[in-house]
Amino acid sequence: MAEPFRFIHAADLHLDSPFRGLARAPERVREQLAESTFAALRRLTEAAFDTEADFIVLAGDLFDAADRSLKAQLMLVREWERLREHGIGVFVIHGNHDPLSGAGAKLKLPDNVHVFGTEQVECRPAYRRSGELAAFVYGISYGSRTVTENLAARYLARPGAPFHIALLHGNVGGHAAHDPYAPCSLEELTHGGKGMDYWALGHIHTRQVLHEYPHAVYAGNIQGRHPREAGPKGCYLVEVSASREVRLTFKPLDQVRWLEAEVGIGELQTEQELFELLAAEAERLAAEHAGGGLMLRCLLTGRGALHQTLSSRTVVRTLLEQLQDIGPAHADWGWIHVYELEVRTGLPIHWAELEREDSFSGELYRLSKRLEADEDLWRSFAESAVGPLASHAKLGKYIGRALDELPGRWLEEARELTLGLVQGTESEERG
Amino acid sequence: MKLYRAEIDGFGQLQRKELSLHAPVVVVYGPNEAGKSTVFGFVRTMLYGFAKRGQAADRQEPVNGGRHGGRLFFEAADRETYVLERYAADSSGKPKLRLLGPGGADGPNDVRVLTQAEWEQSYLGGVGERLYRQLFAVTLSELQEVGALSGEELGRYLYQAGWEGGRAIAAAEKRLMQEMDRLFKPRGTNQQMNRQLQSLEQIEAALRKRADAILSYNEWMEQLDAVEAELTTAETELPAAEARLLLLSRACAGRSLWLRKQELLVERAAAAYSLQLPEDADKAWEELLRLREGRRAEADGIRRELGRIGLQLQEIEYEEELIRLGGKAEALLQSSERIGLLKEERTRLETELQEHDDAIARLAGAIAPEWTERRLRELRITTADREYVRSMQQRRLELLRAEERLFAEREGLKREEREAAQALEQAAGALAAEEAGQRERDSGSPFALLPLKREALAEVWNAADHALREWELERAREDGAAGAGRSAGAAGRSGAVALWAASAGAGGAAVALGAAALSGAWAGAWAGAWAGVAALAMAGAALALAALAKRRGGSSARAGSRAEEARAGRSRARRDGRGAAADPGPGDAEQRVRRALEGLLREPGIAADALLLARRGRRSPAERPAAAERTLAQLRAAVEARQESLRLIERHAERHDELARRRDRLREHGAELGIAAAAAERNKQAAAAEWAAWLAKRMLPPEMSPEAALEAFELAGQALQRLLQYDRLAAKLDAAGSQIAAFAAQAAELCGPLEEARKQLAADPVLALRLLLAESRRHAAAAAEERGLLERRAALHLSLQAAEAALQELGNAAAARLAAAGIESEAGYEAALAHRQLAIRLDIELSRLEPEWTAGLPDNRIAELEELCASKEEAELQALFADAEAAARSLERSRRDALERRGSLRQSVEHLLQEEEHRRLLEQRAMAISELEADSERYAVLAVSAALIRGTKRIYEEERQPAVLRRASQYISRLTEGKYIRVVSTPGEPGIRLETADRRLIDSSVLSRGTAELVYLAMRFALAEEAAGPVKLPLMLDDVFVNFDRGRLRAVAKLLAELAGERQIIVMTCHGHIRDEVLESCADAELVEL
Question: Cβ distance B532 to B494 under 8 Å?
Fold first, then answer.
């Protein structure tokens, strides 16, 4: 029988990472956003105190850029010093965003912190606050930005500890949407004879438990940084009982939360109705996620009479401004900022009829359907369509991935757009 | 869809028009303006609704009445028959649809109102209005419009005409391209994405250029450590150096003090002996000496005072007698003031007396010039006297008023009397005039009445009237059977009424002809109405006259003359009617009448004849002739006039009598008033005599009136008052004189002993008394001073003795002190005291020097300091001090430097930490990338959209368009009898071309007009066939064949016949040959003529 203990698993702190595309946000909001990763870091420390965690493991990407921000490093060291005062150990690996090759201030780290090196998988004992050995912690840091080697292969538990925790930064299971660094399969981790009890994973920002006993867990990042990192963000409190039973509890740490509200325009007739619906939704979300700041993106979907109105950019902009004007009705909501209002609505179109219709629209629809069905056809079609973009040398550097990917949503949006234009213009002329 | 019938309720120029369209080919024929185009428009409106009000040419509001709209019967694709109804005013022109039973009978009676979209979708195969106009409702202008197109336009037109929203597609493409161009161009610079790219590059360049903050940080942190070490060193060495510096500086500065201290210590040792004296010795000694000196001075002063008092006593002398007199004189002087006042009072009283005397004399004179003070004193005026005077005054007033009243009354009476006399005269005149008038009237009238009294006249008249009535009654009985004549008259009247109505009608007709004709016609009509049966012809003449007036407006004069004739007719008729009556003779009644008249009139015969004869010729009293009536009326008037005249005369006589009576009464009254006036005058004289007697008795002037007497009483009262005051004042004056005399006597008595006072006595006793009093007081003062001096001398003697005793005692005390100190002389004692003072002062100075010397130093340092001062010379000390100071300064400087450097380093580090620029750039970069991503995504969507449209168009061009062209080729080949065999359109190239039988390609723009129209007609047919869905809409052609020659026309007609198998065709034309050709070529064709 081993002693029960608890630790915190966090990853992808991305301290001081810049926020994207929010030039038009009010100063107050931008300040809050800029501070949010630090605030989340502070909350992490406090969470360790509150939950009386014995130690903390951080699975890479502590900083957003290889040339780490000085401020970020100082902040981190300060927080670690606070942890030391409470006797809480910290185990750290570096990931692709903050490889150890990056220029770093030679800050003296407190002695409760261990940063795993890049040469080999190290093993360090982790102790309970009361001094008993709790587990062995294994880990290896990225030496450079791109590590395509399967690091997991190097991990192997050593005898001598009641529990084994592996820190790994990488893409487990080959997610296409993420950089394929340190790729390995879940199978390898769980059934590869590694002898680990808990794989503390980092790199993928979406929180997920891949496997249990042994556990393979992505804690996700501690603070959402852009619209795609929506929802509550934080860390896992991992409680290991005397019988090595593992219990995971999510602890939200985020200071600013990104949310998306989808509203269907379906039966709505007037902009006022739409505005009221949106405002109500914003209020509901604000009440649901009380406490911090909310960055809200409103997505208008569905097909209905309002589509035509919403195709005017002025209308959408006005609507957005109106939404930005409404403040939270209760002070304890913190604040809410609607940063975007995306219109993905469509004309009220009867697809089945359109499919059969002997008309230009019908023909166009059938063409798009064929493209949708045939991946190769679509790729060649899309490649020729976006040729001017792809062939642009500088542009490719920034958006090359999307161009390589040629996402199907382009086709979907293009279909809506053209049908809307053709039929919209027609109805305008007829009206 | 097949049209059966069109029912136009109101549309353009057509109204309630029904057209049967029940045939595969319908030829609507009519000349220009017959309404072909209207029908064309009607069908379109029925299918697609009313045009907006702005488009009047298409909307075609009805100009000849009828509701705007109508009905269209048709067979739908489902083989059912419907009726479609649209009215502009109903449901805003929405289509209303009703299903009809087989053969056009009314089916289930449910009317559905559809939206246009539903209608188009369900019954028109989704063909919109634009497509309908372009394909199915073709006019020549549209066809020619096609002909005028060329090149790219033509291609687009073809394209548009073929499929819905052609223009919309072009617009959509354009919009997509515009937005894409705004976003990005591969080699552009100003497009949104190109700009973003540029700024992104700039940002990255800026980022690269920035110094690495981390390196700086590390470097500065190292420097900071070095500075910290330096600082530590400086801070540990500094205290010792500063302590030594302090000691040396003290030694340099304090060496003179130290020397002085040594001196003081030597001096103090010399004066130490005197410190055995008690602490307060010097003060006590001083006090003793001071007291001794004070006592000596006191004794000397007393002795000098005694000598001075002795001298003063020898000089004093005074007289007792004078002092005694002074008291009395003072008493008398106190009353002298009152005597002065009395003298003034006396003068004032004398003036006042004089004034009273004058006033009394003035008042007496005012009463009466001869009045004196004596008379005044004798005068006694009682209340009764005053009352008497007032009653006298009253009585005189009353008498005066009575006299005035009498005079006024008499004047009034005289005036009334005059007026009464005048009225009497007038009344007499009026009476005489009335009587004369009556006489005159009687003499002029045929019915002169007998001079009867009023009552008698009434009686006689009543009798005459009664007799006349009786006579009338008798006459009536005699005329029993006069029926025939009267009923004939009645019939004539009723006939006249009917005739009048007819004539009125004639007159009404004449009204319209003008004012002149009107008056004539009316005159005729009225004449006819009263003409009786015999005047019927005349009425007819009036009618004829009216007719005549109708033709000749100005013939009113003649109409008037006809009317005269009609009136003559009437009077003739009346004469005839009278001729039928019998002639009765005279009877008893008549006699009675004559008798009665005899009693009434002077000449009764004339009146009786006039009355009775006139009556005899008549058949009823209702038809009395005017003469008889007049006679009776005259007779009655004469009687009434006489009665009236008699009444007037009576009234005038009565008034005359009354006025005479009144004048007599007035005269009597005047005489009475004269007597009363005489009595009043006597009364007045008696009163005057009584008053004169009363005045004499009082010695008052006889001419005095009672008012004046009252005034005199008032004056006498005032004068008596004055007399009383005069007497009182005279008494006061006497009393004052005697008091003044007594005072003078007393003064003389007192002033006897003093010479000076005696001299003054005569002039002014008061002054004399004052002199006496002053002398007396001087003597009294001298006596008092002598007494004071004696007392003072005794007191001084006592004081002198006490002072001498105290002196003795003090001398003893001083001797005792000397003995105690062991000092022989007083001078020695005083020297010891001075030494003691010096020793104390030295002690104080030493105690002051000590802290200055040792301030703030611990004991061991003090010892060190003493050592230094004792062992080193001044110059040596100075050199040591300079060295220590230099060492301390250098240490301090290096410390300050280190601090400064540390501060600046820390600030730099802080600055580095706060540095926002890097972060800002990173943010900008992130932002630019995200914008770029968003824009490129949008661009991609736009590009895909454009590609989709292009792809669809290509499908059309490649798959659909050739079908149209193939079909068009067949048609054109047939229509041109093989001259042209193919229509060609190359994808990507605008326009269409024709291929001739000999394989030449001819561009459509160079074709002749007729051929071009033929080509486009063929194209339309082909497009219609190709584009149409399940519903075959009827094809309407509005005179589009006019440019075809006979051969081509026939070919077209044959093609129509063929096409009509599947689709109803309606051809509109105003050309006979076209009509005939189509009818001939199409077996099923039907003609509708407008």
Answer: no
Q: Answer yes or no: are the C-beta atoms of B648 and B463 closer than 8 Å.
A: no
Check whether B987 has a pLDDT greater than 80. Answer: no
- Read off the pLDDT of residues B817-870 as tens digits, 9 standing for 90 and up: 777 777 777 777 778 788 888 888 888 888 887 777 777 777 777 777 777 777
Residues spanned by the domain of A263? 257-430
Chosen from B130, B134, B159, B948 to mutate, greatest number of chain A CBs within 10 A = B948
Which of B218, B922, B932 has the CB atom closest to A18's CB atom? B922
**Phi-psi category of B354—alpha, beta or left, where left has phi over 0 and alpha has psi -120 to 50?**
alpha
The CATH number for A109's domain is: 3.60.21.10
Q: How far away is chain B from the Cα of A371, in angstroms, using its nearest Cα?
A: 10
Dist. CA A363–CA A353, nearest whole Å: 12
pLDDT tens per residue across span A340-358: 888 888 777 777 777 777 6
B contact residues 832-861, partner A, Cβ 8 Å cutoff? none
pLDDT band at A22 (very low <50, low <70, confident <90, very high): low
Residues 6+ apart with CB under 8 A from A107: A73, A74, A77
Residue B524's pLDDT is 45
Q: Does the CB of B118 have a partner CB in chain A at under 8 Å?
A: no
Alpha-carbon distances, residue A305 vs A268, A416, A420, B700 (angstroms): 7, 14, 12, 138
d(CA B645, CA B636): 14
CA distances from B542 to B494, B517, B530, B566 (A): 19, 12, 13, 9
End-to-end CA distance of chain A: 81
- What are phi and psi for residue B1067, nearest 5 degrees? -110, 130
In Å, what is the CA distance from B16 to each residue of A96, B31, B45, B71, B73? 88, 19, 16, 11, 15
Do A297 and A369 lie in a common domain? yes
My answer on whether A243 and A155 are in the same domain is yes
Residue of A nearest to B184 (CA): A389
Residue type at B972 in one-letter notation: I
Q: Which helix (H) or strand (E) holds A74?
A: helix A70-85
Is the per-residue pLDDT at B463 higher than 60? yes
Residue B50 has pLDDT above 50, yes or no: yes
Same domain (yes/no): A248, A196: yes
**Is the omega angle on the peptide bond into residue A214 within 30 degrees of 0, that is, cis?**
yes
B1014 within domain boundaries: no
- Label residue B554 by pLDDT band (50, 70, 90): very low
Q: Which has the higher per-residue pLDDT, A391 or B519?
A: A391
CA distance, residue A407 to nearest chain B CA (Å): 10
User: A125 and A137: one domain?
Assistant: yes
Paired strand residues for B1088: B28
Alpha-carbon dihedral angle through residues B450, B453, B459, B464, given to the nearest 10 degrees: 10
ipTM score here?
Answer: 0.71
Closest by CA position to B114, among listed B133, B93, B88, B130: B93
Q: Which residues contact A298 (CB under 8 A, 6 or more apart)?
A: A260, A261, A262, A263, A278, A281, A282, A323, A338, A340, A341, A342
Following DSSP, what letter does each residue of B41-83 receive, concatenated? HHHHHHHH-PPPTT-HHHH---SSSS-SEEEEEEE-TTS-EEE
Most confident stretch, A323-332, B461-470, B544-553: B461-470
A236 with A311, same domain?
no
Q: Who wins on pLDDT, B249 or A217?
A: A217
Q: Give CA–CA dist B1005/B993, Å, rounded.
A: 8
- Mean pLDDT for all residues in chain B: 77
The reply to whether A19 and A120 lie within a common domain is yes
Compare all CA atoms of chain A with the CA of B174 and give the residue at the minimum distance: A421
> Residue B726 sits in which domain range?
323-355+363-368+706-750
- Please give the single-letter amino acid code of residue A116: F
